[in-house]
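The protein record filed below.
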Amino acid sequence: MTTETMTSIWQGTLKGCPAVGAVAERRRRTSFDDVECFTAMTGDRNPLHFDEALARVSPFGGLIVQGGVTSGILNALVAEDLPGPGTVFLGVEWRFTKAVRVGDTIIGRIEITGRRDDKPICTLRTTVLNEAGEICLDGTATTYTVPLKAAAERVGP
């Protein structure tokens, strides 16, 4: 497929065609509010998230956030940064390798490892690190980017 054809496939996407090797990162400090919000959505009331005395004597040494809080930073990365607005996950394969404690700062990282020439689909390396640089989540994802450019132009700023 020619570069011109590939570019036209991505033309309707808001951020255009991402380059293989492109990287985006986001950082945020987790909080107990994250745990409560995630619980309100899912009903996950695992004592490791809520019972400080129990969590303190667990292998984690304190309250931990749910895995969905840890992986949530990756949702923001793909939807806002790379590939960008209109992007949804088609599939993920994640390994949670280290718990994230309440109050830890996490750094989400996305790297484009592949891009289809016939559709706006990317493969990604996905990582979440803690502030010590330890990997908490590692894996891959496949995304699809909906071409929103025409709709965005009709709606305006």
Helices lie at 3-10, 32-42, 47-50, 52-56, 67-81, 149-155.
